[in-house]
Amino acid sequence: xxxxxxxxxxxxxxxxxxxxxxxxxxxxxxxxxxxxxxxxxxxxxxxxxxxxxxxxxxxxxxxxxxxxxxxxxxxxxxxxxxxxxxxxxxxxxxxxxxxxxxxxxxxxxxxxxxxxxxxxxxxxxxxxxxxxxxxxxxxxxxxxxxxxxxxxxxxxxxxxxxxxxxxxxxxxxxxxxxxxxxxxxxxxx
Length: 189
Ligand code: ZN
What we know:
The protein is of the alpha+beta class and 189 residues long.
């Protein structure tokens, strides 16, 4: 497979994370290559999911791996959701911060794989959460927008303090109390 590039992951404040990504029209060699590079990037992070806008590409494609090997989904849609589940959700684009967020527990995802075959996947708990999180990225939504008002205020304070402490955005180590900071052991996507 030769050398596969690892992309820098775009973080909060980058306008590409606020755009709705466009449908993939043709699953050509460029898309296959992009998927390979996204998988490498996700594994290096490490993360359990990664959407194309997180590497600056405005296309509806995401990759994920919840322990059963990397998978790619193109033009995904959630067609059904059920139940409620609270989970400490984290994001590679808002690194090292986690918040308890309630979302549907189970979802049914449809889309296409890299061979253009139709996918139809019932997903529960972590996988269901990853699918919802990645879909949000494709619609320009960050998990910050899923927080309760008070959580969101606190999050914005932390992110502003980080930006002041390190305008280049390279220090992830600013310590945070009471926001589910966990030293990087929880999955991010
Ligand atoms: Zn994310």
